[in-house]
């Protein structure tokens, strides 16, 4: 469907237009390319309406996805004079009940992230109110609809998409013609919001949202999705059947809508995951590897047993044409995987290695076996904990540690009344905290200490001595909130100094696309930039990436597979156990309820199983790595 939005998207650089979806879809290389594109669509509309001297009416979302768009619009306002004085805005939704002044309110979010930085007039801003009485909600919602209509409807609606498939807060079961109303939030949505509220129990159960019908009345719609945790819902919405189980799928019935996604969120689309199914493609070795591994899984045969018919019957005849026979191609993929299996990840000569751990447990959770192997093999291993991880510690853990210090002082410094009363005051501040309140700097410091001591114990269990641990405490992280600052020069300088100090031969970085809070991504950017800074000083380490606690690389992405013995897996488990504050029910478990050590073991055992099914040697468990080739 060639709509005006999809036409403008097609010519956007650093992006690719996908034909085979039912909602036209544009895939952007990075989230910032996507943000620039969407901001430019908004800016074009605002300028056009300003020239005609009529208001542009915008429908706006909150959440993590549109933040880059708001940042870019603010930049355009400041640097290019983009004028919002004639813009009318309607926000999609607000939690209910919710005080507009609460740090959790979408009122606060919109003012902090957008409205306070541009010249939108206060009277032109409309956001559903979370502080109205239950008996007034229906009238308020009808009035909201009337108000949108009074401006001639929305010119452009921007949307995010929830993992429940929601747009706005139209959870599964919302009707196509639903209007603004009070709704119950889906358990998935509440879980996803838990981190922002410091615990799922604090997330409201209700919200006021524009309906699917209200959204579909907009003249143009751009729905955005970032990150691989959105990949499966993007596929359901963009290319499967229209169903009220996935509200976003109703966009397939809108004449002028566009899905704008980054490459991680696009990963499950047929044209991306199995492009050979949808047409002729330009083969390269990476795609060939992906296709042959896919085929092996599809027909349930190990690589070296694949036959010509398997290729012919599964859309891969193009590969036979290219290579003349299947023998060569299956051998090539098999040999590549075999060569990637590596029991001496830093070689035979003693090397200096830095493992960068975004939070103080990613090192052992995601590559603890390799860490143990490297230390056992006599390499000089350093671990750089990039952030304190202080916001992920429960109050009850802080309280227990304060109790310990209290008892300790009573035991050894009974007369130190100053310290004792300080501890009492800290305990009191926890007791008087309301659900969802932010911690003060002192409490964050205590929580950071808890994680620091756990990390030290975890590293020692993995064989890395305390003097090789560096706690970088990168400034971008220190907001005391879930949302973090973007990467800054000071973050990069701290990492560059560490690279200068250690002059590593090899580094390991969490190259993560799916960390729910973006911290891993920022940490990876800090290292990438710092490596760039020090390369002129002849510091050019081998750069390996591992996945954080949430996902594993796909088999075709893996360039190095480090086999783990049962004993190493057990030692890794012991190291993970040292992170007591993250055990049982971690603060930020993401969508997966399993404990981190269980996830780590399932994941490494699963990779070993996949390798074995491909016809490669049978290992107990495997940790996977990919080399950094210029993109995450
Ligand atoms: C926000 C909203 C929601 C979000 C969706 C995705 O106003 O209506 O539909 O767009 O939950 O949230 P993020 O962007 O945080 O993943």
TrEMBL record:
Residue intervals of the Glucosamine/galactosamine-6-phosphate isomerase domain: 30-254
EC number: 3.5.99.6
SUPFAM superfamilies (UniProt xref): LmbE-like (SSF102588), NagB/RpiA/CoA transferase-like (SSF100950)
Enzyme class: hydrolase
Keywords: Hydrolase
InterPro entries per record: Glc/Gal-6P_isomerase, GlcN6P_deaminase-like, GlcNAc_PI_deacetylase-related, Glucosamine6P_isomerase, LmbE-like_dom_sf, NagB/RpiA_transferase-like
Domain of life (superkingdom): Bacteria
GO MF terms, alphabetically ordered: glucosamine-6-phosphate deaminase activity
Entry's Gene Ontology BP terms: carbohydrate metabolic process; N-acetylglucosamine catabolic process
UniProt keyword Hydrolase present: yes
Name the record gives this protein: Glucosamine-6-phosphate deaminase
Organism listed in the record: Gimesia benthica
Gene name of the encoded protein: nagB
